[in-house]
Structure formats: C-alpha cells, structure tokens
Write a structure and sequence with these properties.
Elements: H1 48-60, H2 68-156, H3 165-179, H4 192-220, H5 226-256, H6 266-305, H7 325-369, H8 373-390, H9 400-451
Keywords: Membrane, Transmembrane, Transmembrane helix
C-alpha cells in the first residue's frame, strides 16, 4: 500500500479556513516575558582565577630580581597579595551566593505577580474576545432578519419600514376595513383655521356665560355692588359652561349608543339634547331680554331727567318694551352656535372612539385567525434580536481594580527589594575587585622597577 495514500477508514482533515473556531491570537495578553536572571549579570567584575593567574605570573618573575633585599620585600608583598586574593575569592563567592539567593527570593515574588497579572489579563481578553464574537454573530443575525422582514412585508403589501408586529396588524386591519367600506379617517391636520375654530368653540362657552352673568347682575343687582357682580358673573359662566358640556356629553353618548351594548336608546339622548338646548335658549333669551329692557329704561330715564329728550310723549309709555329684537336675535344666535359647536365636538369625539374600537376589534380578529403569524414574527424578530444584542456584556471580574492595584503594589515591593539588595552587593564586590586590581598593578610596577633598576649617571654612580 502506498504510504502516502490515506487509510480507507481515515477521515480527511478539515480545512482550517472553513473551521468555525475563530483565531484568538489577537486577544493574547500583551505582557513582557523576561528571561531568568543570574548573579553574574549583576557582578561586573573579573573572577578570582584571573587575578590569581596574574599574581602567579608576577611571582614567577621574582627570581629575576638581582637585589636580595628587593626580592625579599617583593616576596613578602606577594604573600600579602595572595591573602588579599583569597579574601577576594571569599567575598566573590559570598556575593555570588547572596545575589543568587536574593534573585531567587525576589524572582519568585515577581514571577508570581506577573503570573497573576498575566492570568487576569488573559481572562479579560478572552472574555472581550468572546463578547466581540457574539456581537458579530448577533449583528449577522439581525441583518438576516431585516432581509427576511423586507421580503415578508413586501409580499403582504405592508410598508417596508414597519418595525413591529402591532404596526403590521394595524396596517392589515386598516386595509380590510377600507375594502369593506369603513375607512378610518386620518387625524385632521391642525391648520390655522381649525385651531381658530377650536379656540372660538371653547371661548364661546365663557363669552355666553359672561353675557348671562351681566344679565343676572342687571336683574338682581340694580345697585351694582361688587360682590353681587362677582357672584352674578360666576353664576352665568357656570350655567353656560355646564349646560354646553351637558350637550357635548349627550351628543357623545348618543353616537356611542348606536353600536355599544348596555347603553340607553339614542332617541333618549337626542331628546335630552333638545330639552337642554331649549332650556338654555329660553333662559338666555329671558335674561338677555329682561336685561336689555332694564338698561333701555334706565338710559331713557336718565336722558329725560337731563332734558336730552325733546318729546317724551312721542316715545309712548316708558314702561313699554322697546323693540330691540335685533339684539335679542343676535344673542340667541350666538347661544345656538355655541350649543351647535358643543354638539359637533361631542360627535367628533365619539367618532374617534368608535373608529379606534373598530380598528382594535379587527386587529384582535386578525391575531386570532393567525393568518399573518409568520409575517408578524418576522416583523418583531429584528427588535428582539437587537434587544438580545444590547444585553451582551463581557463577564467582568468585580475585584479587577483591587486585584490590579494589589498586584502593582506587590510587584513594586519585590522589584524595589531586589534593586536595593543587588545594588548594595554589586557595589561591595566592585569595590573589593577595584582595590585588588590597584594592588596588583602597584605590585607589577614594583616588580618591573626591581628587574630593571635605573643606572645613575656622572659622578653619582661611584657613590
């Protein structure tokens, strides 16, 4: 069998490019990984063997010194340097051992601290990487749901910008009602004239009430006392507003009674509207007519007393009612228009309520038939997936700030301890090596001078 041919039962290895496992190399912890420390890195001195070899070379040159006294002195000096060298060897060994122990103790603390920091950072990076992958996956699902929603809404004739199932059902209900001949009138645009009409419809209730209050004041307050005037005006406004509100409410109930079970017959509400309107017109007519008579009589009497009327007999009896039908008709027309505005407002309010109820009933019917369940689910899926994506959050370590600060304090302690002891030991061994080197240099100079003494010139050589 060919060794390069796979076994029959062997499964082919999956392609790495098609593997769903994401690459996590970009989420690795960005922390340094220093190499191990040795004592020699902090001992910038020569080993004792180098100094011993140099001293041995100098000692072998001592027999070449011709002067016995100088040779004896140099031998003594060499023995002293050997003692100094042995002491340096001892100091070098002690410093090396101490540095090794210090580096081991502090290095364990530093490595443990770095390990905790590295584990914490890896945890946070892995969590953030997982959340990012979940967020990307959720975003892809949302885009797919949006494409599906667009296709479903277009298929059913709904607006492509529909965001919820409730809006979709309302559109379908509006379409069904329009096909059945019950279209839902959109809310009227609040134009300038419409706002003015609504303002005058409200103002008419208070204005007619003020007229009623003035008439009541003329009837029951001939002396025009202030408190009675205030009472009369308040009573007139309350009478007008309450009666017109009653017309509005009766019109609202009469419109609802046609299609709402449990309410009275519409004819009863219509009879109430007619009765309240007649009462309102009668009372307002009597008050205004009587007030007009009283004001006219007072004006005529005041003019007669001042001699401003030339012929009082031609005007007839002062007690007779003057023909002011035009002012009375204007007042009654104003009262009738106020009542008609209240009637229209009540019926318009009832129409809006009935249309909303009919729309809600049709929406409930569509939901019960489950004809558009798939389309409604597709319309709501995008909002559901977006809410699920918004809930994604990395699993935070609640002690991470305290953990990081504690690690930083521990790391600073161990590094400071290591630096202090290393600097002290390094300075001591460097000082010992420098002293030994200076002594060897001085000894080498003495040996050189003893081997080659300077000859005296002139007469001094015989002395």
């Amino acid at each position: 069998m060919d060794p390069f041919t796979p076994a029959p039962d062997a499964q082919p290895e999956p392609d790495a490019s098609l593997s769903p496992t994401p690459d996590t190399s970009e989420y690795e912890a960005a922390l340094p990984h220093p190499g191990p420390l040795t004592a020699e890195q902090f001992m910038p001195v020569l080993p004792p063997d180098d100094f011993a070899a140099f001293l041995e070379e100098l000692t072998r040159e001592l027999p070449l010194v011709q002067d016995d006294a100088a040779r004896a002195a140099l031998n003594t000096r060499a023995r002293v340097l050997r003692l100094n060298l042995e002491q340096y060897r001892v100091n070098h060994g002690v410093a090396r051992a101490t540095l090794t122990r210090v580096l081991a103790e502090t290095g364990a603390g530093v490595r443990e601290t770095w390990a905790r920091q590295d584990a914490h950072l890896r945890f946070m990076n892995a969590a953030s990487g997982g959340v990012e992958r979940d967020y990307t996956r959720a975003t892809g699902q949302i885009e797919e749901a949006r494409r599906e929603r667009f296709g479903v809404l277009t298929l059913h004739g709904a607006r492509p910008d529909t965001q919820s199932a409730e809006s979709f059902y309302q559109q379908q209900a509006l379409s069904d009602l329009a096909r059945e001949g019950h279209p839902l009138r959109p809310p009227e645009e609040q134009t300038g004239s419409k706002r003015v009409f609504n303002a005058f419809a409200v103002f008419s209730k208070f204005f007619v009430g003020v007229i009623s209050g003035v008439s009541i004041n003329l009837l029951f307050n001939p002396e025009s006392r202030l408190y009675l005037t205030v009472i009369a005006l308040t009573a007139g406004v309350m009478f007008s507003v309450l009666l017109l509100w009653l017309v509005d409410e009766l019109a609202y109930r009469a419109r609802l009674a046609q299609s709402t079970p449990g309410m009275g017959r519409p004819a009863a509400y219509l009879t109430g509207i007619v009765g309240v309107s007649l009462l309102y017109l009668g009372v307002e007519g009597f008050l205004n007519w009587d007030g007009i008579l009283r004001v006219t009589q007072e004006i005529a009497a005041n003019a007669a007393q001042q001699g401003q009327l030339t012929d009082l007999s031609a005007a007839g009896d002062l007690g007779a009612a003057p023909p002011h039908w035009s002012l009375l008709a204007f007042t009654l027309a104003l009262v009738g228009m106020a009542a008609a505005a209240a009637l229209l407002q009540g019926r318009e309010r009832a129409r809006g309520v009935l249309e909303r109820e009919r729309l809600a009933a049709r929406v409930a019917q569509l939901k019960q038939t489950r004809e558009y369940a798939d389309a409604a689910r597709a319309a709501d899926a995008v909002a559901y997936l977006e809410a699920a994506r918004d809930r994604l959050a990395p699993p935070r370590d609640v002690t991470s700030p305290d953990h990081a600060r504690l690690n930083e304090r521990v790391l600073n302690h161990w590094e400071q301890e290591r630096d202090t002891q290393v600097q002290t030991l390094s300075a001591g061994i460097v000082r010992d090596a420098r002293q030994l080197q200076d002594a060897l240099e001085e000894f080498a100079g003495q040996v050189q001078a003893a081997q080659h003494p300077q000859r005296r010139g002139g007469l001094l050589r015989f002395l």
